[in-house]
Amino acid sequence: MSSPPSFTEIPRIDLSLADKPEAESLLLQKLRHALIHVGFLYVENHRVPDQVITNIQNALPELFALPPEAKAEVSLGRSPHFLGYSGDGTETTAGKADRREQFEFATELAATWSEGLPIGERLRGPNLWPSAYPELRTIVERYIEELTSLGERFLKLVAKALSLPEETFLSFLSDQHRLKLVHYPADPGAEPGVQGVGPHKDSSGWWTFLLQASPPHVKGLQALNKDGAWIDVPVIPGTFVVNIGQAFEVVTNGICKATTHRVLGGPLERFSVPFFQGVRRDLTKEEAVGRLREHFNQPEFSSGSAEPEEGQGIDSAFLKGRYDTWGESQLRTKVRSHRDVGRAFYGDVFDKYVNDD
């Protein structure tokens, strides 16, 4: 069976159809197509309260307008868990500096790592909260709570769309999910195609749920289709953009591929809020590759779409790297992206992680 033509727009999935028995089969059919042939989709009627979304959107300009000393108080450089603030140009993607500043948060958990435990467990830990904006914690924690719930509801539909029991993917989830609040500064003199974030696949989670928190006329996000063309992912109010992470590609035996995407900088400032659904840090390659292999080797899944050449070159630290657990492969990725933090907290493995390819 041949694959359908490469996508030229991002499909929209109406999650309210899951509550209507007569419409669920159509929903699952559309979702299955998006999973296997696109890897990117919008979800609408997602049941995340409007006020929760409005609160976090309204917080963004105030948060990024904080003075340098308030941002420095919660610098990522203070956190062995890679949580906190990082400035414009301090993170790299595809070997080049990204034009963005960001605050990274996670499900609020205590640090429990001690000598003798797997090193990947060091990623588990508490957030840094800016004292100059005390209201932020309540806003962020409520948002993480709602997106955690949405993510679990969505995974049940994904399982059904892929002919699996609806609870199948929940056992892969971590106790800690991550959230970024991102600001792409305006660059009136930007050259066409300037990097906001370079081409990449999401390596930080199971699935990503992105709130594009700027008005519809502010563009930037693009996904790479199977023909190697960049397709705009415009802002659609009331939706989240949802895309596959690398761990999910591994577990589905490559049937549901993580789609390469990028963000272009431009003359207008842009805000976005990606939520990365966490993967168990103790997940091994053997379990990830083998647990559902037989299911996804069935003939019904033989028509997954090929991947463009540019996407094939994206690093897959978990599957192709030297480290057996998801936790350590994630730690390696974080160290390579934020080398100042890696040098400060992970001197014993820093050289190994940055030179292992």
UniProtKB/TrEMBL annotation:
SUPFAM superfamilies, per database record: Clavaminate synthase-like
Residue spans crossing the bilayer: none
The UniProt record lists the keyword Metal-binding: yes
Domain of life where this protein originates: Eukaryota
Gene Ontology biological process: small molecule biosynthetic process
UniProt-recorded Gene Ontology molecular function terms: metal ion binding; oxidoreductase activity
Keywords: Iron, Metal-binding, Oxidoreductase
A matching Pfam family: DIOX_N
Residue span(s) of domain Fe2OG dioxygenase: 175-279
Family: Belongs to the iron/ascorbate-dependent oxidoreductase family.
Name recorded for this polypeptide: Related to flavonol synthase-like protein
Organism: Cephalotrichum gorgonifer
Lineage: Eukaryota, Fungi, Dikarya, Ascomycota, Pezizomycotina
